[in-house]
Design goal:
Elements (H helix, E strand, L loop, with lengths): L6 E6 L12 E8 L4 E6 L7 E2 L5 E4 L2
Antiparallel strand pairs: 1-2, 1-5, 2-3, 3-4
């Protein structure tokens, strides 16, 4: 579903200690389908991974 280098935009996160907000954009580093963990390098410098089964969500940018 997600491939390295694809661009994504954050739609929601449950991470309480992040400065990321919906609308922030980033580049996919990798996806671990076993953990449903999407590793993203965010344009603002964060490398927070998205836990897709834990309420975090992104959408692909065109």
């Amino acid at each position: 579903m997600y491939q390295r280098g694809q661009r994504v935009v954050l739609t929601a996160t449950n991470a309480p200690h992040t400065d990321l907000r919906p609308g922030d954009e980033g580049t996919v580093r990798s996806l671990d389908p076993t953990l449903s963990q999407l590793r993203v390098t965010w344009d603002g410098g964060s490398r927070l991974s998205m836990l897709l089964d834990e309420g975090d969500s992104v959408r692909l940018l065109p």
